[in-house]
Amino acid sequence: MSSTTQIAPKAIKLDAGNGTLSVQWSDGHLSLYPYQYLRDRCPCATCSEKPRATHAGPAPAAPSAFPMFGIKAIKPNRAELVGRYALQIFWNDGHSTGIYAFEHLRELCPCAECEAKAENPEVK
Amino acid sequence: MPINPQDVIKALSSVKDPDLNRDIVSLGYVKDLEVGDHRVSFTILFPTPVSTIKQQLGATAKHAVEALGVADVQVRVTSATAGGATPGGTPGTMPSAGPKHNLIPQVKNTIAVASGKGGVGKSTVAANLAIALSLTGAKVGLMDTDVYGPSVPMLMGGHEAPHVVEGKLEPPVEYGIKIISMAYFLPKDEAVIWRGPMLHKTINQFLGEVRWGALDYLLMDMPPGTGDIQLSLSQTIPLTGAVIVSTPQDLALTVASKAIAMFQKLRVPILGLVENMSYYICPECGHREGIFGHGGARAAAQQMGFPFLGEIPLDMFIRTSSDSGKPVALDATTPQGRAFQEIASAVVEQVGVANSLAAQEISIQ
Fold first, then answer.
1. Do B131 and B329 contact (CB within 8 A), yes or no?
2. Within an 8 Å CB–CB cutoff, is residue B234 touching chain A?
3. Facing residue for B363 by CB, picked from A2, A3, A11
4. Residue A18 contacts B, CB cutoff 8 Å
5. Of B266, B357, B360, the CB nearest to A83
6. Is B268 in CB contact (< 8 Å) with chain A?
7. A112 found inside a domain
8. CB A14 to CB B365 under 8 A?
9. Strand ranges (DSSP E) for B115-224?
10. A64, A98, A106, B110: which could join A42 in a potential S-S bond, CB 3.0 to 4.6 Å?
């Protein structure tokens, strides 16, 4: 319980190419999050009222009010650190109340290695 | 065998800057400390150009860590360049190596003084700690964030009042310490009956709209518990660390551990525990009694792996001084004043440790 050697982000790139946000972690891991994937997993109270998307499963698609007009591709306009423990993302759909705690963000990493760990927690 | 960062810090604390006669950790020169399984690396950042003496310090530091049995020690010795980060101010000040404070960029270190339960003496400890720190030569501010039960102005004399300068609040100064408190804005008999968003707004105002100026330490006297104010503070600025106050009782410690759990979740370093009302000495016969038990906080700190910062006795003199608005720490020659001086020294040391371990600012592009 003593000194924190918690994994933390070192560098965050809002546009890491191919519509992804990247996080370079202090343990050397690199996470790439597709924008919609991250937006669908917004942890704010309002979004979590809807059925929670899990790491393994896809998020239910939000119903579009005007499907014939097409939906603007989601992307982050900017992001800010919250204290010492989280990232707040300001999305281009106007939503910004989600605070992604670093622990949670790392758990959301969609790479094959992290997915394997999520499915088999005993396997190191 | 994995290397304990605390052992590395301890070893580096034996290396003194000969000019200032203080160790490089408490001076804040140690940066980017990385402790791997067999490898330790760090930078020593001097504020002034590096001379041969300073290069030798680098070698001394390397040997100190190697003496722990670490095979691979990488040391980088460098000095501040114009426009780059400057690690030190004048001697006696504590530079910040951690994340920047956006709302209060000129405040080097922010320390929350917190507890689980109420009534354990947070405000008394915060006020006296502020004074003890300022007696070491540091520039100190004290923010009373207990909006419901603000007690700091009374503890500190309450002679001055805030006034507006260039659209911002100039905080009153008592005993050399800048103070802000809800008490300044409320008529005496009025209560604050607010919900969360108002508290959050107040914290933002206390941070962003007060002319704190350049401070070495800004202490924040917290309300009891783990509620809106703790959360607002931890979300708005990257706190340097938290000092946890408890009485010796198991009951107080159990609740204090909740506050500790909260700060850990929010990644705020725990600077250490203080045991208040540690024991009572009878003014008549000098008999010592542990009315609330004794040593519980020290044991808990050891068990949890946190530093124990010191004990403060249950002392009528502390209470009468507080009531008369003259905190005991003003007189460092009294046993009570000395107790606070020792705690202040421990806090300075732990701030140095926390800043050495803090990662550099996370870049967002």
1. yes
2. yes
3. A11
4. no
5. B266
6. yes
7. yes
8. yes
9. 140-144, 163-165, 168-170, 173-174, 177-181, 215-221
10. A98
Determine contact, residues B179/B142, Cβ cutoff 8 Å. yes
B309 touches chain A (CB under 8 A): no
Mind listing the pLDDT tens digit for each residue in B128-146?
A: 999 999 999 999 999 999 9
Asked if residue B256 is part of any domain, the answer here is yes
Asked whether this complex has an ipTM greater than 0.85, the answer is: no
Helix (H) or strand (E) holding B254: helix B250-265
A14 contacts on B by Cβ (under 8 Å): 364-365
CATH number of the domain to which A98 belongs: 3.30.2020.30
- Tally the domains of chain B: 2
Q: Which residues of A touch B5 (CB under 8 A)?
A: 3, 5
Q: Is A2 within the bounds of a domain? A: no
Residues 6+ apart with CB under 8 A from B315: B280, B281, B328, B336
Q: List the 24-83 stretch of A: residues with Cβ below 8 A of B.
A: 26, 79-83
Say if B47 falls within a structural domain. Answer: yes
pTM of the predicted structure, to 2 decimals: 0.81
Q: Which two tokens stand for residue B33?
A: 């400390």
pLDDT tens profile B227-272 = 999 999 999 999 999 999 999 988 788 889 999 999 999 999 999 9
Does A4 fall in a domain? Answer: no
Structure-block tokens of residue B216: 């070495």
